[in-house]
């Protein structure tokens, strides 16, 4: 609203400046006229009559210039000027230059029709589950009907701000904290719908609303962080237990197959022993029961003999 007042003051100063310039020019012209005709008239009576006529003409011309300068007004490209005639609504003027009737008409206000941004907040507002939160939001709105805005509401900028704050507090009270944190877009849409319903009779529409920040108490934030960490640990334990269950089921299926097929069990044992002996300097400890059940003793002896033979051949070379 301060910006609108500054624009109105600028337009008033513009008309006043034109009037003062024209008045200065007129005063200079009359001064030189009086200076030139002072030598023509011989009697004081003639001079007095002449000065009287000049004074009347100067006064009338000044009044006419004042009326002309006050009848000329300007409005910016994005503005509409609200014109009142004898206190009654006359119409909207602008943008650009326009004329009014001085004394009878006046420009009450200039309405900005650009998209405007209003930031608003709700501090220590209780949610549905009685949690105090601080919410910062921003609304983008514009005037679509300047006539309704001029006639229905006095300070429309402040009215939009207060309506947005009230709507934000109502929406917070209807939702739980989890909904506010997870569904910001839905909350912003509800605020926009509420604000649009309230401002439409004023000729104002709300284009969008954005939630900038939601601040919760520090102790509650720590508790929620611990809860989230415990939930992640629980999920990790569940995943680990599920993996162990699947592995045991696979082992059970493998044991059923190895029980009916001892040759496959021996081949698996040989493969395991081979994998263990591939690395140099590796030491493989095999239980005696495994040696007897899978006949790995002969296999391990053959593997060791093969390893020694290979070493001797390398030494001879």
How would you describe the overall organization of this protein?
With 317 residues, the chain is of the alpha+beta class. The protein has four domains: 111 residues, no CATH class; 101 residues, Tetrahydropterin Synthase, Chain A; 36 residues; 56 residues, no CATH class. Helix content is 63%, strand content 20%. The chain has a three-stranded antiparallel beta sheet with strand order 3-2-5. β6 and β7 form a beta hairpin. α1 runs antiparallel to α2, α4 crosses α6 and α8 runs parallel beside α10.
Total strand segments? 8
- Measured between the Cα atoms of the first and last residue, the distance is 100 Å
Which residue ranges are poorly predicted, with pLDDT under 50 across at least 5 consecutive positions? Answer: 1-6
Total of helices: 10
Mean pLDDT: 75
Order of helices and strands: HHEEEEEEEHHHHEHHHH
Strand order, sheet with most strands: 3-2-5
Mass-distribution shape: rod-shaped
Q: Which radius of gyration do the C-alpha atoms yield? A: 47 Å
* Helix/strand class: alpha+beta
Proportion of residues in helical segments:
55-70%
Strand content: 15-25%
Counting structural domains, the number is 4
Task: Describe the main β-sheet briefly.
Answer: 3 strands, antiparallel
């Amino acid at each position: 609203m301060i910006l609108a007042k500054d624009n109105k003051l600028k337009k008033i100063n513009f008309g006043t400046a034109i009037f003062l310039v024209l008045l200065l020019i007129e005063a200079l012209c009359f001064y030189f006229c009086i200076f030139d005709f002072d030598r023509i008239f011989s009697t004081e009576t003639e001079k007095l009559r002449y000065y009287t006529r000049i004074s009347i003409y100067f006064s009338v011309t000044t009044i006419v210039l004042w009326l002309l300068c006050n009848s000329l007004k300007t409005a910016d490209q994005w503005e509409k000027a609200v014109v009142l005639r004898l206190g009654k609504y006359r119409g909207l003027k602008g943008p650009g230059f326009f004329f009014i009737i001085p004394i009878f008409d006046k420009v009450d206000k200039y309405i900005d029709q650009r998209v405007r941004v209003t930031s608003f907040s709700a501090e220590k507002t209780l949610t549905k589950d009685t949690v105090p939160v601080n919410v910062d939001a921003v609304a983008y709105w514009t005037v679509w009907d300047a006539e309704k805005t001029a006639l229905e509401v006095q300070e429309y900028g402040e009215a939009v701000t207060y309506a947005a704050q009230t709507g934000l507090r109502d929406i917070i009270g209807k939702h739980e904290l989890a909904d506010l944190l997870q569904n910001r877009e839905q909350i912003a849409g509800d605020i926009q719908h509420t604000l649009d319903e309230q401002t439409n009779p004023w000729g104002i529409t709300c284009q969008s609303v954005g939630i900038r920040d939601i601040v919760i108490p520090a102790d509650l934030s720590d508790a929620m962080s611990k809860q989230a960490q415990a939930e992640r640990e629980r999920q990790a334990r569940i995943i680990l237990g599920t993996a162990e269950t699947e592995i045991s089921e696979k082992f059970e299926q493998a044991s059923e197959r190895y029980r009916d097929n001892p040759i496959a069990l021996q081949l698996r044992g040989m493969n395991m022993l081979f994998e263990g002996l591939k690395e140099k300097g590796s030491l493989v400890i095999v239980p005696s029961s495994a040696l007897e059940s899978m006949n790995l003793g002969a296999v391990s002896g053959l593997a060791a003999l093969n390893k020694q033979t290979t070493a001797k051949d390398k030494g001879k070379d």
